[in-house]
Amino acid sequence: MEENLLQIKNDALSLIFETEDPKSLEELKLQFLGRSGRLTLAFKEIAGLPLEKRAEIGKLGNEIKKVIEDAIADRAMELKKSAQKKQKNNLDITNPGIKPPLGHLHLVTQAIEEITSIFEKIGITRVRYPEVEWDYYAFTALNFPANHPARDDWETFFTTDNTDSKKGQIVLTPHTSNGQVREMEKAVEESKKTKMPINIRMLNIAKCYRRQSDVSHTQMFHQFEGLVVGKNISISHLKGVLEYFVKSYFGEKREFRIRPYHFQFTEPSFEIDVTCGVCLGKGCKLCKAGWLEMGGAGMVHPNVLNYGKIDPTIYTGFAFGWGVERVLMMKEGIEIDDLRLLYSNKLEFLEQF
Ligand code: PHE
Asked: What does DSSP say about strands 291-300 and 266-275: parallel, antiparallel, or unpaired?
């Protein structure tokens, strides 16, 4: 019995030291210590020995078991270390490196940059005006009579602050048209200094706020407002700029149309539609008979020029105000079925773009 145990130990140890891979080491473990392993079977025999022998041989059996277990653990460690070493020595610097995950600008920021660069090319450059504003610049100076219900159309957030008795309450800008009269005031000052005629080429991109939230509206959104004022500026100029923008931003295949409309601050006023990017004007479930509404435009109302201290008998101008998120949604290949996703901070959504 004793000899048998010693034989098992010798066999086990020599096999363990000879193994070269973790898998066969695992097999050896089973072969000796597993349920029907050699040592396990020997233990069963020990149980049948006479009592006085049983204790002594049992002790030896346990010692051998411990020796085999330790030898397996040591060998496993050695094999692991040498595998690691091999891997290091095999370093191949021509392998492609590990790419760290790269982020990108938010979809709306990308759109703002693209829109800015399109207009820059025709000399209409970006300015910034406050995103909280006096009622005066947001409404009054845009020809909204006091208490006129047209103020309601903009679903404005009014604050209770009234820091200027003439300029009225402070609102969160409901549209970027607040930049129009501010820009006119700046241009008049400049023209006084330079003695040059008034020449406005403004692109005002800013956050706007309205009480609205559904699949195509968020309470905070962005608009880009164009304002061009000079001598002999006409609807043809507006049409030219519109065509240039539609073709540059949406592509050559897209067409636009100008529809009569009403705004307090332009006369005549229009709404602009662009052919749907999915059906290209044929009509589909996404659009109204082939057309998607892009936003408002028109010739600057003489009263607004007067508010800006510009003589409407000498100067004329056009203005337009379109939604950044809206034009983005109208782009081909971008199918966002809920605008609120843009501001949900969900990486699964944002990483797609
Ligand atoms: N401010 C208008 C809006 O928010 C758009 C507009 C801008 C219309 C300029 C005409 C001229 O709907």
From this structure: antiparallel
CA of 269 to the centre of ligand 1 (A): 9
Pocket test for ligand 1, best of 129, 263, 305 (most atoms within 8 A of CB): 263
Per the domain annotation, does 95 fall within a domain? no
**pLDDT tens-digit series, residues 133-178:** 999 999 999 999 988 887 877 889 988 877 677 888 899 999 999 9
Token pair of 22, please? 């973790």
Q: Using CA atoms, how far apart are residues 242 and 70, in angstroms rounded to an integer?
A: 82
Range of the structural domain that residue 200 is part of: 107-350
Pocket lined around ligand 1, Cβ cut-off 6 Å: 175, 177, 225, 263, 266, 295-298, 319-321
| DSSP result, 159-223 | -S---BTTTB-EEE-SSTTHHHHHHHHHHHHHHHHH-PPP-EEEEEEEEEE-S--BTTB-SEEEE
- For residue 322, report the distance from its CA to the centre of ligand 1, in Å: 7
Q: Are strands 200-209 and 220-230 parallel, antiparallel or unpaired?
A: antiparallel
258-264 LR contacts (CB < 8 Å, sep 24+):
258/297, 261/296, 261/298, 263/296, 263/298, 264/142, 264/143, 264/144, 264/148, 264/150, 264/301
> Both 156 and 245 in a single domain?
yes
pTM confidence score:
0.73
The rounded Cα 96 to chain-centroid distance in angstroms is 28
Q: Which protein residue's CA is at the shortest distance from atom 9 of ligand 1? A: 320
Atom of ligand 1 nearest to the CA of 320: 9
Into how many domains does the chain fold? 2
Place of tokens 């501010």: 182
